């Protein structure tokens, strides 16, 4: 433990104790929890920051596309309050980055945001006749809702069992919170992670989960860049533009794929791009060392780059986004069956 963590450790003990008491009060039903008659599949984690929830939620939306489906998020950093259904007038500002991305990419899915997930699910039931499944985004710590299936993510590079509680570490609650998970997904794994390493991680994870909880391992695969703006005459030299919690996997993939990353404009997670940001990017591309370079970004960033104020600027620049898709190292069929059987059983009740 380094010096800073030792200084923060007493505060972590205090915070962790508060969270343990909170969880105990929910477990003992002193604080009420709410269950629903339809399947409610929650995707979350124990850690602050990106563990890859968005691509995994998208995986579930594809897997369950045969059902009348909705996804409910808090709508982090949105400029609205309360329950809101996505519609034709929605923007990333009104919904939040990820919900707007779901709305854009999954037109057959009802997308909603609400800080109060209990009220959000009830509003969905009132608003969407025949609703069959709700997927909750980032809801591990939202204890008022008792999901029917709880999927917990942990980042391979920052496994929860090696982390500390805030502020000494990045855990939102003590490690034993993993006992609420029905399955654990270790995300952002190296594509060729050995079986011995998978077994080691599974063993360490099992110290905190309920007996028999399955552990799955996923990695990212990246597609060919999808143009947003100009496309002609650009080479493999790039400016990488991201507003992510952890952009390293994408940067490493691009470098391995032969791209020369001249500059990484690494903004904070959920960064709201401005016209000034785009003018700076435009000026950078006009410098002699950057002429002929293209800009690569992510789908998450794209939803903000094509808003009304920025779309014209974005379309005038050589910008493309790199699609990202979750791939299971093994056990995909087992995971798919876990989810689809659960949903089918509850829909028969």
Provide structural commentary:
The protein is of the alpha/beta class and 349 residues long. The protein contains 11 helices and 14 strands. It folds into 2 domains: 3-67 and 132-220 and 328-348, Rossmann fold, CATH 3.40.50; 226-322, Rossmann fold. Helix content is 35%, strand content 21%. The strands form 2 sheets. A 9-stranded mixed sheet has the order 3-4-2-5-1-6-7-8-14, sandwiched between helices. Helix 4 (97-105) crosses helix 9. The mean pLDDT is 93.
Short characterization:
With 349 residues, the protein is an alpha/beta fold. Helix content is 35%, strand content 21%. The chain is globular.
Q: What strand line-up does the widest sheet have? A: 3-4-2-5-1-6-7-8-14
Task: Give the CA-CA distance, first to last residue.
Answer: 50 Å
Q: Topology as H/E string?
A: HEHEEHHEHEEEHEEEHEHEHHEEH
Number of structural units classed as domains: 2
| Rg over CA atoms | 21 Å
Tally the helices: what do you get? Answer: 11
Question: Low-confidence spans: pLDDT under 50, at least 5 residues?
Answer: none
Shape: globular
Sheet/helix structural class: alpha/beta
Let me know the largest β-sheet: 9 strands, mixed
CATH topology heading of the largest domain: Rossmann fold
Q: In the CATH hierarchy, what is the class of the largest domain? A: Alpha Beta
Helix content: 25-40%
Beta percentage is 15-25%
- DSSP, total strands: 14
Tell me what the CATH architecture of the largest domain is. Answer: 3-Layer(aba) Sandwich
